Batch of 4 targets.
Target 1
Amino acid sequence: MIWFIVPISIVICNDIMAYLFGFFFGRTPLIKLSPKKTWEGFIGGFFATVVFGFLFAYALSNYNYFVCPVDYSSETNSFIIDCEPSQLFHLQEYTLPSLLQSVFGWKTVQLFPFQIHSIALSTFASLIGPFGGFFASGFKRAFKIKDFADTIPGHGGIMDRFDCQYLMATFVHVYITSFIRGPNPSKVLQQLLVLQPEQQLQIFNILKSHLIEKGAIQQ
């Protein structure tokens, strides 16, 4: 659930903080497609979102409810959320760069690895995510419409509220697939079973030689 809640929350945070920074400090227009967007709001929203994502990731990583998958127990006839969290959600010690050591006076800090990933998510949500909104604004201006629909009174349609979320959801999927999710043994086995017998035998011999070298099996 944490991979769902954190990305959605940081997009919302970026939207709010960019508005606040732009409202109070905005002077320089950012893009013609959205005249009310300013560089001050864009930059202020970025830093605020990174900080929020980092702290929010720490808060949620402490609870199994957010990091464990939901399973159904036939014995109790109920859903249970109990597991051994992955290494992403175990505190680990990191050595700070020398510059940060001189600033904070700490040599090491304890963080959840997921917090490091949250920085990447927050950076995308702040620097690239808003362009989903810019694209939607340009699209609406091209067709001379204010909103895509009137589903939500005063806010337009679903697309008007979730234009940045669609882009963020795509990024999160690619990010998890590329950097988080490891090989699935069952899928690997399924792929092996559809190979020709001689190909399976070749893979078997390679795997056998590898396991012998590792000492996992005897020759």
Note: Residues 185-218 form one domain.
Target 2
Amino acid sequence: MDSPSSFDLAPPSDGVREDQEAAAAAMDRDIPPPPPSPLFDSFEELYDFIQGFHRDNGAALVKKSSSRKRDIRGQTMPGHYVLVCDRGPRRASESAGIRKTSTQKLDCPVKITASTTKATDWKWTYRVQQGEHNHAQSLDPSAHNIHRRRTTSQQQLERTLSKYKTLSARDMSSIIRDSSSKSNSFFRQRDIYNDRQRIRLEARKEKPVNQVDV
């Protein structure tokens, strides 16, 4: 009988095995197309719905373009938007080749348009121009920058907490997460750390030259 090698690795723990199985399962899951569009009272309502659908199905959308602004129910705003997958078209560099970006671009063709017209009594609807993604679901919404964006109230709380110099980014992250809804809690601790550094740098720049910390 062969003796065990000193290089044999122990089998993964139950928790690690579950994570590995979940990752493998996500890689095999296709992203479903969105359902037929209902009517929405505003673009913001439509956007929250369609973005939430993609967030819950391992994807994300970004605004690519919009039409010229016009008067809609007393507000000056675009009446048409184009939304694309955040893993969508790669931007060609002015020089040779493809521009390198921190976001993983896969030339995903998904394209959705959102519009409102007088014929719909200025209600908003979306239309799926291309709904089939060329990639599988992401493991977590935090894989997408747009799902990690901090809300206005979260940014305000960050500014308040950043004044406490002994408060770590980890504790800040926990406080902000506890005060937020689940759909707005996909930011990472590193995001909060970077925000805190930026806020403190801005505060130092705004401080009068003759003012010193005590």
Note: Residues 3-10, 14-25, 94-103 have pLDDT under 50 and may be disordered.
Target 3
Amino acid sequence: MSETCCLKCGMQVNKVQLIDRLGSEPNIVGSIHVTTSHIIFKAEDSAKEIWVPNGLIGTVEKGVLSVLGTPLTVKCKHFLTLTFLITRDKECQDLVDTLNKCGKPVNITDVFAFENKERNDDIRLNAEKRGWDRFDWAVEFARQGIGTADDRKWKITDFNMGYKYCDTYPECLCVPSATTTQTLIGSCKFRSRARLPVLTYFHRPNAASISRLVHFPCAQPLTGFSARCVEDEMLMDAIAKTNPSSSTLYLIDTRPKGPKGTRGYPGFPGPIGLDGPKGVANE
């Protein structure tokens, strides 16, 4: 006889048979566990386990009650189909309702991501927490070597504090130490949504860096591809000078090629900055 017991985040049904749909193997007796993130089948007499994320549950179909029990078929979005045989019809119906609720939540707050809770020590601090506070840009840049291995050629600035200039960039930015606030403001005004070139990755061994700059349609110049901006070119030149082992700064245009082999989408010109500052090459 099967048993049902409620868990904190779902339900559990014991003495369930997993039916081999091809009929070549005997049915496997086990238990079904439904949690906030997965539906799990655990066999009783073996280590066999089947884990299916709730988000992959497609349809749940309840069959006709027979002498052996009620069949339950779970069809998943990644083409996996599981068929169970449950002794009691009431338990089968409860499981159908639970799986439908997990697979198709009515409220977004019912999904697993919202089950995450603050740690006990955070609760005791009684401080307001934001998810982004768990990631500290200053610590990350220090890990990469900014302030030590970079020979002080880069600096961390609060230029974008409160997302004053660019609402799609972090508040903490890393820019060349030689740049001024006016240079950064000028570059922001020149580029779409104020997405100026800033440090993304610093490579310790040779002081090479990757700066976020050209990625359609993120940081294209507002005034067209033939326009020039003194502040923007000064910032690019400063980035080029941060690497003493190379005198060339490569601008890589990652937009797909158009019908005629040019970069970008139909109606957009080719690579940016063909007449850019000295020491800047385009790829």
Note: The two ends are 70 Å apart (CA to CA).
Target 4
Amino acid sequence: MAILTETGDGPLVLSPEQVREIGRELDELRARITADLGERDRAYIYSIIKAQRGFEIAGRGLMYLGFLPPFWLAGVAALSVSKILDNMEIGHNVMHGQWDWMREPGLNSRVFEWDTVCPADQWKHSHNYVHHTFTNIHGRDRDIGYGILRIDEGQRWNPYYLGNPVYAFALMMLFEWGVMVHDLEVDNIIRGRRSWSDIKRLLKGQWRKAGRQVLKDYVAFPLLSGPLLVSTLAGNIAANLVRNVWAYSIIFCGHFPSGVQTFTEEETAEETRGEWYVRQMLGSSNITGGRLFHIMSGNLSHQIEHHLFPDLPANRYPEIAPEVRALCRKYGLPYSTGPLSRQIGSVWAKIFRLALPPALTGSAPAPGVIVMREPRSERSEPSEAGV
């Protein structure tokens, strides 16, 4: 049986039967990995936490020698690594519930808080629920453009987007703050679709969390360094900046390179689980690299696998990836991946290109894959999203 057929217009067409089979195979993969979780996974996350704490202690300590440039640079590097590990391989993944099976209070997704200005509960709503449930659906997934960018041809152009590269650069440099305000939906407030009273509770939470972070990084630790206050303050600012640029780059490479597909609400209404899986694979992209690179990315370099199984421990993504790639090959689905340089280049090229009106850039590309859906009356699977 031919897995995929090619239409006269080019896109590949996936039948309802094939979608069901994809869902079944991915469910089996998930069940197999879940059943195998155990001591090696526990040892892995404890080793990452130990490393993160070690880098933070080293970074804070080296700041006391910050009057010597090599020690200041080493302190910034250590503190940057600490913050990246905390936010990505630990915080992001813990708050997805990846380690809830351990029943370890310090790794409980419901109470964990991370070293960044965004309150954990607000991030879990905007990211775990909104983004992972409605991945790349226009009008539902607010990560498409983050409310300030034109990052997909499906977003209608207007002159505001001429500043696309400037907005993207500002978001990159201030990424933790952009993540913090994401759940406020500031663009909808400006358009009058949301009132300030709607976000009063969110603002209070942000004020408390951001206040603690600012006090820690920009007041307490600099004061503790005495006469080295200025160099310590500069070091903390630099470490947060490094973390912001790195996190932005990894996340944008996983979602916005050329070839990643977006969807309409009509196309995705009442999805089956198999259809949800297919959307995750078409709407995500991976980054190739070595083991250390994957750890430093929070294993979000395996963005496809993360979107398929967001609550499986991320250290398992490297072993899952070959099976997911083989599944894509079996059904003719694209498996978007490439080195960081190529992926980030593709993202920035898109940011610059989509700043211009469509008359100068051409029409939107046709979808690479079309999923043929059963009539609603014949659907037997409930819609389900793995968040």
Note: Residues 9-371 form one domain.
